[in-house]
Amino acid sequence: MKRHIISFVILLLAFSSSLCFAQTEQQTVKEDFKPITTNQPGKEYPMVNSEGRIRTRISAPEADTVLLDISAVKYNLTKDENGVWTGESGPQDEGFHYYQIWVDGAAVPDPNSLYYYGAMRWGSGIEIPAHDQDFYSLKNVPHGQTREIYFPSKSTNTSRRAFVYTPPGYEKDLNKKYPVLYLQHGYGENEYGWPNQGKANLIMDNLIAEGKAKPFIIVMTYGMTNDVKMGGLRNFDIKQFQTVLVDELIPYIDTNFRALADQPHRAMAGLSMGGFETKMVTLKNLGTFSSIGLFSGGSISSDDVKNTQDFKEKVKLVFVSYGGREIENMKNRPRSGPFGGDPKEDIDAISKEGINAHFYVSPKTAHEWQSWRRSLHEFAQLLFKD
Amino acid sequence: MKRHIISFVILLLAFSSSLCFAQTEQQTVKEDFKPITTNQPGKEYPMVNSEGRIRTRISAPEADTVLLDISAVKYNLTKDENGVWTGESGPQDEGFHYYQIWVDGAAVPDPNSLYYYGAMRWGSGIEIPAHDQDFYSLKNVPHGQTREIYFPSKSTNTSRRAFVYTPPGYEKDLNKKYPVLYLQHGYGENEYGWPNQGKANLIMDNLIAEGKAKPFIIVMTYGMTNDVKMGGLRNFDIKQFQTVLVDELIPYIDTNFRALADQPHRAMAGLSMGGFETKMVTLKNLGTFSSIGLFSGGSISSDDVKNTQDFKEKVKLVFVSYGGREIENMKNRPRSGPFGGDPKEDIDAISKEGINAHFYVSPKTAHEWQSWRRSLHEFAQLLFKD
């Protein structure tokens, strides 16, 4: 278990180190800025240009310093005669990023953006248009529903929130039952991650409309039940979350939704810390889950297969993915822990042993939501295929 | 129609004038502050004391002035040696309020609070514990679901979002059909208002658990389809929204949910501008709706009954409510428009004419969500009773 945690910390470090370049750039800024889809209704700023630079604007007439803080780099804004500050970031990767504004030393959300939960806070988020954004766009296709539910949890003595995606058609044929994917967010995020910045519902609506994925239910709940604190990952204990998920949430879903309530029709996946949770929970509960998805969150090696009883008989699908920038960082530093080299080698190895295993790399993205949206898009097309 | 709009503007003025007292107070502050339920996870501040004062705190080491801005009054915070600013507001009414922070002239959300859409922006909101908060608390009772749906709208050429509350038990007995309430937010708010700050789902879960309300479906969608701008209420046109609601959303709900799809089982209600919309839509569509709820948003007079064909035969329930502080303000200024004196007199008059009409006043609350939570709580107990 400790090896997982160490790997997770290495990943976090790798993630951080990939984010320190932009500050040194000094280029001409292309003047083709447009308002961003993650702006609040009616707001012109922030804007993005074709280079992926963010331009933001805020009125702060009495301030001395205003900064835009995105991807761990701070950019100076400049003040005009009306006290309005404007400035832009370096080019950002495609997809979703968290950011904030600093006004005279106060770190605050940009009042013009929509707010998302990540990095342990509700705060500003921004969407850089991606070349492949079509797959998570809102289109004129049949739409599923994203449902907020509260399920009883004896182990935590609370009613706990989950979001449940039911596919288009769920309300039409009331005799049909569906497979279920349990899908987890990452460290410092919560159950809003996949429905909000992850766009899980739109990804599924579009895949189903194109006939590329089987319709299935997705259940998303809070995964940091052990209340792990920043720096406290060494003490990470899966037990509390496993109890909530396996003993409380799954039985609730099986009785309150038209779920195919058996191992062949139940999958689990997660991103980053949610990937580690997925690996820990599924390998201990192969009577409950048949498919495993790890997005930027570990790998399944030959040793894992060997050390887990009935793995080959019980596991129908293994899917491991990373952002391309994460893979680049892995190449630049020695690997250790459960990966046995790199995750692609692991997947090649277990594939040769007869496991239905897939490896995917999201082009030119880091430890961020664009990698995980693409990962879900790939994984969903492989799930529940028989 | 113009009379409605003028009344609405008068209401807005009345609302504003009730909010300008706190600044002049200078009292001893009771030191029994506690963290607030609308704080972000793990945040100690903002806090509230037993007088209903808000104490907030923000780090802004290089700032010269930081203000807390709540209910249209600004309060100075003071800086400590670490650059952290702290200060408190005057006593606030029970219930939910929007607020913001000013840092050297920049109006920003408090980074410690959860965010809500109102006053035309996503921003900070705060909950003052109310003596009657039990009725909208999350309890260990059977819970319904709040579903995010997208319905096709030809008139606006978009897929439009709505939230649909389905009561506890909806997923159990798949033969049972339910009445439907269409429930609208106010000016500058959106479809998130009732599920978030309105707590419509918890109000219904609790009422149903106590056997005080019939289970019914609630549908909440965006009501400012005509994109009316601040100050542009004179040009308010109900037609676009009426088309979306009556011609597009209702048929979608009737075919995609197990709705009792007839006039006796369909109601509409709304707050403030949503009340005006409710009145305009229902009086023109009495073949579609049988029950009408206006929360801080107009009244139904004897003239309305007289001027609307078949009103007495078709309308099963009229419910009109206001916040107590709104009623106080009405007494202090001459009334005009469709009210014919005051809303209570209207309801007394139409009751005498044989209409099943109810008037409710929320004690000691203004044109705010606590008035509307209580209004829904009262209205729901009267709805669909036969």
Give the arrangement of secondary structure elements.
The structure is a homodimer of 386-residue chains.
Chain A: H1 2-17, E1 34-35, E2 47-48, E3 54-59, E4 66-70, E5 73-76, E6 78-79, E7 84-88, E8 95-103, E9 106-108, E10 115-118, E11 121-128, E12 145-153, E13 158-166, E14 180-184, H2 200-209, E15 217-221, H3 239-256, E16 266-271, H4 273-284, E17 291-295, H5 302-307, H6 311-314, E18 317-323, H7 324-331, H8 343-352, E19 357-362, H9 369-382
Parallel strand pairs in A: 14-15, 14-16, 16-17, 17-18, 18-19
Antiparallel strand pairs in A: 1-2, 2-3, 3-7, 4-5, 4-8, 6-7, 8-9, 8-11, 10-11, 12-13, 13-15
Helix pairs in contact in A: 1-7, 2-9
Describe the 3D structure.
2 copies of one chain form a homodimer. Chain A has 2 domains: 99 residues, Immunoglobulins (Immunoglobulin-like, Sandwich); 243 residues, Rossmann fold (3-Layer(aba) Sandwich). Chain A has 9 helices and 19 strands. The radius of gyration of chain A is 21 Å and the shape is globular. The first copy, chain A, is an alpha+beta fold and 386 residues long. In chain A, the strands form 3 sheets. The first copy, chain A, has an 8-stranded mixed beta sheet with strand order 12-13-15-14-16-17-18-19, sandwiched between helices. In chain A, strands 4, 5, 8, 9, 10 and 11 form a 6-stranded antiparallel beta sheet that branches. In chain A, strands 1-2-3-7-6 form a 5-stranded antiparallel beta sheet, with no helix packed on it.
Q: Which radius of gyration of chain A do the C-alpha atoms yield?
A: 21 Å
Structural class of chain A: alpha+beta
Largest sheet of chain A: 8 strands, mixed
Q: Which spans of chain A have pLDDT < 50 for at least 5 consecutive residues?
A: 5-25
Overall pLDDT level of chain A: 91
Strand elements of chain A, count:
19
Give the strand line-up of the largest sheet of chain A. 12-13-15-14-16-17-18-19
Largest interface: A-B, 50 and 51 residues
